[in-house]
Design goal:
Layout lengths: L13 E5 L4 E4 L2 E4 L3 E3 L3 E3 L5 H6 L1 E2 L3 H19 L4 H8 L1 E4 L3 H21 L10 E4 L11 H14 L2 E3 L4 E4 L3 E4 L2 E5 L3 E3 L3 E3 L16 E2 L12 E3 L4 E2 L13 H19 L14 E6 L2 E5 L4 E3 L1 H13 L4 H17 L17 H8 L5
Parallel strand pairs: 4-16, 6-13, 7-8, 7-13, 8-9, 15-17
Antiparallel strand pairs: 1-2, 2-3, 5-14, 10-11, 11-12, 18-19, 19-20
Helix pairs in contact: 2-3, 4-5
Length: about 375
C-alpha cells in the first residue's frame, strides 16, 4: 500500500466491538467504523484438554515453528550427554497428533531429518532409537484428498519410517507420557499438536450469531447475520453452500476468494451495482511428505510422486511475495535438494526482557463499553 494515499495501518489488540455505536475497542484506544471486516482466522484447537494445551507444541505460526525446531535440536544436545539408552528414548521420540496436511508434512519432515541429517550432526547417537509417531483419531490421513492420494501418503510415511497410528485417540499428556485410549502409552517430551483448529472469537458478537464450533454465521455476501456493515472472512466465518452444508474448509483459498469477492462487491456499492454472492471454487488440495514425495488432487487430475512434489514446490514458490524473495527461496530449495543438508544448527532463543510496570499497564489496559 505504499502508493495508496488513503490506506492507514495500525497494529493493535482488538478487545471488543460495539455494533450499535459502530466502534471497536483496542489496547491503543477507540476507533469508529463505517464498514468493519473481521478476518481473525483460527487458532489451535485442544478440545478442552488443559494439559495438552500446556505441555504440547502447536504448529500455526512462524514463532511456533521456530520453537519446535529449537526444542528438537536442544533435545539431541541433551541426549548426547546421557549414557543410559532408556533415558534417551523419551528425549529423542517425537509424537505428532493430527492426520491433516500439517501433521502429515510435519511427520515426513522430521522423519527425513532423522534419516539423513541428524546422524551427521550427532554421530554418537543411534537414531534407530528415535521414533517418529503420527497419531490420527480417524480411520484415514488427509481426509480432504482422494482415496488413492490418502493411501499413497500413508505409504510414503511408512517408507520414511513413520509409525502411523489410525483410529487412535489421545486422552492426556503430562509432558512425559502420551496417554492413548485403549492402547499403550508413549513416552516423549516432544508432543506436536496439529489435531485441528478453532475459529477465533470476538466480544460483541451475539451468541445467536455464532455456530456451535465458534465460527461466526454469515450470509452469501459474507455479511454477519443480522448486520448491515460487518463482514467476516476466512476461517472465522461459517457460510453454508449446497456443496458445503457444514461450511467451507478452513484453508487459505477460501479466505482469498472471499476477500476478492467482498472487495469487488464494495467497489460495486460505490457505483450502485448489484452484488455477487460468494461461491467457492475448489482449486484442489496438496501435501508434501518428503523429498520427491507428494500428493496433489486438482479438479481435473490427480498426481503423486516426483511430479506432484514439483507442482507443490512451484505453487508455493509463486505464492511468495517479490521476485527477489522467490529467487532466494528457489536457490535455497535447490541447494537443499542437492545436498540434503539444511541449516538447522542455529538455536534461536529470544532473550526475555521483563517490561516495566508502565509498559505493562499500557499493553494490558482494557476499555469498558
Amino acid at each position: 500500500f505504499h502508493s495508496s494515499s488513503n490506506v492507514l495501518f495500525r497494529m493493535a489488540i482488538v478487545r471488543s466491538i460495539d455494533k450499535k455505536q459502530k466502534r471497536i475497542f483496542t489496547n491503543l484506544g477507540v476507533l469508529d467504523y463505517d464498514i468493519l471486516v473481521l478476518s481473525q482466522g483460527a487458532n489451535t484447537n485442544y478440545f478442552g484438554n488443559e494439559n495438552i494445551h500446556r505441555y504440547s507444541a502447536p504448529m500455526k505460526t512462524t514463532s511456533e515453528a521456530l520453537y519446535i525446531r529449537n526444542k528438537i535440536i536442544s533435545n539431541y544436545e541433551r541426549a548426547v550427554n546421557i549414557s543410559e539408552e532408556k533415558e534417551r528414548k523419551p528425549i529423542m521420540n517425537v509424537v505428532i497428533v493430527g492426520g491433516g496436511a500439517t501433521g502429515v508434512e510435519l511427520a515426513g519432515s522430521i522423519a527425513e531429518l532423522r534419516n539423513n541429517v541428524f546422524p551427521k550432526d550427532y554421530p554418537q547417537l543411534s537414531f534407530k532409537n528415535m521414533r517418529v509417531i503420527l497419531i490420527e483419531a480417524g480411520n484415514t490421513l488427509l481426509s480432504g484428498l482422494s482415496e488413492k492420494s490418502r493411501e499413497k501418503a500413508l505409504e510414503y510415511l511408512q517408507r520414511l519410517g513413520v509409525e502411523v497410528m489410525l483410529n487412535t485417540l489421545v486422552e492426556d499428556y503430562d509432558g512425559f507420557t502420551v496417554k492413548l485410549k485403549g492402547k499403550q502409552p508413549i513416552e516423549t517430551i516432544t508432543l506436536l499438536w496439529a489435531a485441528g483448529v478453532k475459529a477465533n472469537s470476538m466480544k460483541g458478537v451475539d451468541p445467536e450469531q455464532k455456530a456451535p464450533n465458534n465460527r461466526i454465521l454469515v450470509d452469501e455476501y459474507n455479511r454477519l447475520i443480522g448486520e448491515e456493515d460487518i463482514f467476516v472472512l476466512g476461517d472465522q466465518c461459517l457460510l453454508k453452500e449446497d456443496k458445503f452444508p457444514n461450511g467451507h474448509p478452513q484453508v487459505a483459498q477460501v479466505a482469498i476468494q472471499q476477500a476478492n469477492n467482498l472487495a469487488a462487491n464494495l467497489k460495486k456499492a460505490l457505483k450502485g451495482g448489484r452484488w455477487n454472492p460468494f461461491i467457492y471454487r475448489d482449486l484442489g488440495s496438496m501435501a508434501t511428505i518428503g523429498k520427491k514425495m507428494a500428493v496433489v488432487d486438482l479438479p481435473f487430475m490427480s498426481m503423486r510422486g516426483f511430479f506432484a512434489w514439483f507442482v507443490w514446490l512451484f505453487v508455493h514458490l509463486m505464492a511468495i511475495l517479490g521476485v527477489k524473495n522467490k529467487l532466494q527461496i528457489f536457490i535455497t530449495w535447490a541447494w537443499k535438494y542437492l545436498s540434503f543438508d539444511p541449516s538447522l544448527r542455529l538455536l534461536i532463543r529470544p532473550r526475555y526482557v521483563k517490561p516495566s510496570k508502565r509498559e505493562w499497564l499500557i499493553e494490558d489496559r482494557d476499555y469498558e463499553l
